[in-house]
Amino acid sequence: MQTNIDQTKWYDRLWAAFIFFTRLPFWRCHQPPRECYKTVVEHWPLTGWLTGGLMAATLWVGSHYLPYLVAVLLAIVVRLLVTGALHEDGLADFLDGFGGGGRDRERILAIMKDSHIGTYGVLGLILYVSLLAAALYSLPPTLAALTILAADPYAKMVTAQLIMMMPYARTEEEAKNKTVYRKMQWPAAIGLAVQGLLPMIAYIWWTGIQWELLIFIPCLVMYLLYLLIWNRLRGYTGDCCGAVCLLVELTVYLTVLAC
Question: CB under 8 Å to 73, separation ≥6 — which residues?
Fold first, then answer.
């Protein structure tokens, strides 16, 4: 299977990432080989350029014609529509599994795979969206838009390290999408870093914000979540990746406010 993946074209792998991580109809234009979906995390930050760009544009343009709070909420709605709430679904499942009745590894995995949402998931999503909206509303429109452009790809790049740090917690047959991401080789890891760091470096240069805190604190949050996941599951799931991505991104916004 590794050979089959390596024989696929780079644009097929990129196309698979946009099909997998968004609900935009890219699949109508091209259908990449199934093997390409094992590499989608390698281009995850690049999809953040699109989702973050649409969210930032909605917020910035909307702030010129609508009350700012309405523009912020519309920006969040746009990203939910573009991504199909993929990561939010992961966050809800993660909170239900780790915070609800998950007392052991098997029970946590079973809860996260259940399509029903529990109390922890509902409350967690409400608190997450509230904090996200409040953080963006607390920033001036232009700064908020620029922060989104940097935070979205950076959070995805940081979260992608989970697949390098531990194995998948289920078998491929048990996975929700029947796909297990492959471990990244050095060229893919370098490409991932470029995709995630380039917007963040430009953002830091433009705003002059303390780069040490902006880089370190989200990474620390990811590492603490990694320890939690490793201690409870000894492996990651797609829900874990989605939850960590959103929480790391939220940490970027809160860090900018603190700076």
Answer: 133
pLDDT value of residue 116: 85
Name the 3-class secondary structure at 113.
Answer: helix
- pLDDT bucket at 5, cuts 50 / 70 / 90: low
pTM over 0.90: yes
Q: What is the pLDDT of residues 31-61, one digit of tens each?
A: 888 888 889 999 999 999 999 999 999 999 9
Handedness of CA 143, 144, 148, 151 (dihedral sign): positive
* 8 A C-beta contact, residue 181 and residue 163: yes
Number of Cβ within a 10 Å radius of residue 251 = 21
Q: Is 84 left (phi over 0), alpha (psi -120 to 50) or beta?
A: left
* 157 and 43 Cβ atoms separated by less than 8 Å: no
**How far is Cα 21 from Cα 40, in angstroms, rounded to an integer?**
8
Contacts of 75 (CB under 8 A, 6+ apart): 55, 56, 58, 59, 62, 136, 148
Other CB atoms within 10 Å distance of the CB of residue 166: 16
Q: Are 90 and 238 in contact (CB under 8 A)?
A: yes
| Model pLDDT for residues 113-150, shown as the tens digit of each residue | 888 888 899 999 999 999 999 999 999 999 999 999 99
Q: What's the distance, CA 202 to chain centroid?
A: 20
Query: What Å distances lie between residue 43 and 104, 148, 162, CA to CA?
Result: 33, 18, 15
User: Quick one: pLDDT at residue 6?
Assistant: 64
Beta bridge partner(s), residue 236: 168
* Residue recorded with tokens 């963006």: 136
- C-alpha to C-alpha distance for 8 and 19, rounded to whole angstroms: 16
